[in-house]
Design a protein that fits this description.
By secondary structure, the chain is an all-alpha fold. It has four helices and no strands. The chain has two domains: about 70 residues; about 40 residues, no CATH class.
Amino acid sequence: MNRWASLIGNLVATFFIWLSVALVQTTTGSEGMTSFIAMLAFGITAILWLIWAVNLGRMNAQPASEKSKRSAAGDARLSLLIELMDDNERQVVRQRLLGDLNADGEALSLAELLARQENTARR
């Protein structure tokens, strides 16, 4: 929603910039003043849209960095949890994960696939 609001704001600002150029041309009638105002309006419009593009790029890049922060925090919590488990608890979690992997319809487990890959690599 913020992107649309900034886009509409830039369109309105661009309209008023060029409307002021038309008003200067009709009121002054001076060719030199009109050329100067038109160049100034072009520069302001270019700066306005460049700033909008930079801000749009920052808005697109921001969620990716926040996502990486969340995943790093999740990895730290997971490693702490694993460190706090004893060997029996780790084996229970491992068996449960292997059971979940086998439950999704795969005929071969990960260990079997790795073993097959090693056998084919040896040949």
